[in-house]
Amino acid sequence: MEVIVVKDNIKNSMDIDIDNIFLSERKIPLSYFGGLPEKGQKIIAVELYAKWYSFYEIDHNGNVEKSPLAIDTMNIGFLDHTWNPQDLINFVDGKEDDYYLPELTIELLIGRWEMESKENYIPQEV
Question: Whole-model pTM above 0.85?
Answer without folding.
Answer: no
